[in-house]
Amino acid sequence: MNKQNVHQLLLEKLAVDFDVAQRAAQTAYETATHEENIAENKYDTLGLEASYLAAGQAKRVEEIRQALTLCQNMPLGAYDAQQGIQIGSLLGLEDDQGRQQWLFLAPDAAGLKVYLVGQLITVITPRSPLGSSLRGKFEGDEVEIVVAGTRQQFTVTEVI
């Protein structure tokens, strides 16, 4: 597993998402400002609804832009066995049922998923309960979180 490749896939996916969001924002803006969508009476709300959509799309573009910038500038140094898991770490976890998963700790873009050589890798951030619990942990450490009243326990199997 190569974290530079994972990082590159993450950046490529964010760039695609950014492009799609920009086009959607532009379309929403054009719809909101089109002359045919000028309200003719108080019940004609298409233009107003389109303007709300345009504002939401613009916000989404900015969120993706921020995630892309943070991920482009994230440190990708080698795993430091004295500091433990940090932003930029690629790690394997195993739950108490023996199920394995791979995670990439990034400053933003939580929930984004990429595949590398057929392996699903999920991006998490330090703002999540799991991401927060993992920071500073080492291979072999156990991590416990409570989600919706359910305790979940994981073992760090590998850190890159």
What does the model show?
The protein has 160 residues and is α+β, with helices and mostly antiparallel strands. The chain folds into two domains: 3-72; 90-159, Transcription elongation factor, GreA/GreB, C-terminal domain (Chitinase A, domain 3, Roll), CATH 3.10.50.30. The chain has three helices and six strands. The protein has helices at 3-33, 46-72, 129-134; strands at residues 90-95, 100-105, 113-116, 119-124, 142-147, 150-159. A six-stranded mixed sheet has the order 3-4-2-1-6-5. Strand 1 and strand 2 form a beta hairpin. Helix 1 (3-33) packs antiparallel against helix 2. It is elongated, with a radius of gyration of 21 Å. The termini are close together.
Query: What kind of oligomer do you see?
Result: single chain
Main sheet overview: 6 strands, mixed
H and E string: HHEEEEHEE
Percent of sequence in beta strands: 15-25%
Q: Outline, from the CA principal axes?
A: elongated
User: Which class of secondary structure composition applies to the elements?
Assistant: alpha+beta
Count of individual beta strands: 6
Q: N-to-C terminal Cα separation, in Å?
A: 8 Å
List keywords for this structure.
160 residues, alpha+beta, 6-stranded mixed sheet, 40% helix, 24% strand, protein biosynthesis, DNA binding
Task: Walk me through the topology.
Elements: H1 3-33, H2 46-72, E1 90-95, E2 100-105, E3 113-116, E4 119-124, H3 129-134, E5 142-147, E6 150-159
Parallel strand pairs: 2-4
Antiparallel strand pairs: 1-2, 1-6, 3-4, 5-6
